[in-house]
Amino acid sequence: MKILQLLTTLKHGDAIGNHVFILRDIIKEMGYETAIYAEFTGPNIKPGEALSADRLPRLSKDDIVIYHLSTGTKLNRIFGNLECRKIMIYHNITPGHYFVGYDSAARMICRKGRRELQALAEKVDLCLAVSGYNKAELDSMGFKCRTEVLPIIIPFEDYKRESDGERDRLLDDNRTKILFVGRIAPNKCQEDVIRAFAEYKRNFDKDARLFLIGSSEVKSTYLGKLKEYVDLLGTEDVEFLSDLSFPALISYYKAADLFLCMSEHEGFCVPLLEAMAFDIPIIAYDAAAIPETLGGAGILLKEKDPVFTAAVMDRVIKDKELRNRITEDQRRRLEDFRYDKIRDRFEKLLRDFIAGS
Amino acid sequence: MDETNSINIEQIMDEIREDIRRKGIVSDLPDFKKGKRPAEDAAEAFDAEEFALKLGAFEDEYQVNAFPEIGGGRSFIKKVIRRLISFQTAPPISEQNIVNMDTAELFQMVGAYMKDRDRRIEELTKEVEELKKRLPGEE
After folding, report:
1. What domains appear along chain A, each with residue ranges and CATH number?
2. Tell me, what's the ipTM?
3. Predicted TM-score (pTM) of this structure
């Protein structure tokens, strides 16, 4: 019996990619033959780490394919038609309407992806949603199989690695640093982070800096519009950073005083847990899977009022007692995502599935 | 929220809101210009006659021909090659023709809907004019 993983794009440093590699290692440790098949691979994928999805071997009815669904792709249909046991890990598909006016191709792919997801409702044997929010979506789409929540596994030990020394020196300037990590994408609403930061800078701390770390799709106009917005606001010290090395990313997390998230659609939001791991107090907009991932920790904003957000930012940064309370809550919440807990859960779910229970 | 803890975050949020309200602070920063929806551009450029002409042209031309006439030199070899690879090229062309047919039908429905709406608007406009005439002072 083989247990294979299948996905559209595999990259190191990507939340889904990291999750795939960890699951691969767990499956190997369980003693099963396994491999990763991907439609596309990033430049940092070494030869032998993954095979082309076109080379998916002939499968027997006992074989298991674990498919990571996160977008519209022909693989969604191919997966549905496989004649083997099928597990789908649902990461969520961004609703297409977020891309209107920025990236028509992404909009079409996402809309198509949701239709393809719906078509899988009766073709999957087990669904593992990375959040209750995602599970609720699958339930509303009428997925007939058992659906469980399995959060993304994060190797927190990796964040204890060395940071980028040169970057550390550049960031060691006694200035307040606000951070958001996430793809530059319209559903993540970086414009609202920028606007709140602009109010914070003019009303509370003129020396503050904002770092927006994340890659952007080449065809999307969103990043350009964000930069125009920064110019329009006349706000300085806003930096857009992408393709950082892991040590450099650690440098920014270590230096940050606050993590500000105004995203309107997330299926899980790994950067929230990363911020928790670095004891950075989090302020986030109450939407999608964010309140679930925070689990009562951090500060949730019910409205996007930049003046209010800026005032909350100032209070969190200056009020040591409040800050400590937030980070204590976050540390407690982080325990729920401990590597060994999620690993054990995945192992149990997989064993039960193999045993047919 | 743990209410036995000395820090009540909700209370702090309320204090901040009250402070802002008392000071009368509002944001006067410009809004982020959201990506312009294609529909907004289209509405400005709509021309009913142009729409009818293009719909007519689409209805006539939507079928893609998998085997167009091959002329010019070495046409026999080109025809043989085309036949050999047709197992690969014909299916997507066939699928595209189905999509095109559905699209043509969709636009026909939109055209019919628009005619119906125009007719209805004309009827309602006449009704409004009649009713206006009956208002005191309008007679």
Report:
1. 2-150 (3.40.50.11930), 156-336 (3.40.50.2000)
2. 0.80
3. 0.79
